[in-house]
Amino acid sequence: MAALLLPIGSAAAQTVQEYDLKAAFVYNFALFTDWPADTSYEGGTLNICVNPGSALRAPLIGMSDRSIRGRKIAVRSLAAGGNLRTCHVVFLDVADKERWATIKKGLGSGVLTIADDEEIDRDKVVIALSMDGNRVVFDIDTRAARQAGLVLSSKLLRLARMVR
Predict the structure, then answer these.
(1) Rounded Cα–Cα distance for residues 54 and 57 (Å)
(2) Which of 86, 102, 108, 150 is deepest in the core (most CB within 10 A)?
(3) What's the pLDDT tens digit per position in 99-155?
(4) Do the beta carbons of residue 119 and residue 98 sit within 8 Å?
(5) 67 SS3 class
């Protein structure tokens, strides 16, 4: 989570570095989250679901060699009509704004939702990512986490810009 303090340089580097940093944040959010005991991990994977067109998809796929608590990371498509019940983490961005209500209905319990869009993050998303100048920051909605049956580490809560 030390990436929270890293400044971002030029505009070209910012785009690449911003999404690499945000992917690292997503990984760390999952690392510091406890899912309900009855959570299913088909194939022993922790599934991160993201829109196929998201700029975060490639950096997340780059983390597929990592694991969280003995479960390999698998990046899945957050596609219309897909089986969202297998998602453990859902990353949403501006491309998902119009269909967030539909996505939300299709999710099972025990899903860590992370948004990189201001309109989505106000609507029962557990973690909201954003840029503050040239820093990646995040806010946490503890009520949304409790409703999802998730327990977030106190370490993660201390690093958040705002906890509500």
Answers:
(1) 5
(2) 150
(3) 888 888 888 889 999 999 887 867 789 999 998 988 899 999 999 999 999 999 999
(4) no
(5) strand
In three-state form (DSSP H/G/I as H, E/B as E, the rest C), the secondary structure along 21-56 is HHHHHHHHHHHCEECCCCCCCHHHEEEEEECCCCCC
CA triplet 41, 98, 94: central angle to 5 degrees? 75
- For the stretch 37-47, pLDDT in tens is 999 998 999 99
Tokens of 14: 């910012």
Residue 157: phi and psi, rounded to 5, are -60, -40
Tokens found for residue 21: 């940093």
Question: Which segments of the chain does DSSP mark as H helices, in order?
Answer: 11-31, 57-61, 100-106, 118-121, 142-147, 154-159
How far does Cα 136 stand from its chain's mean position? Answer: 13
Distance of CA 142 to the CA centre of its chain: 15
Which amino acid would we find at residue 90? Answer: V
Sole residue written with tokens 């609507």? 123
- In sign, the C-alpha dihedral spanning 93, 30, 128, 15 is negative
d(CA 9, CA 27): 23
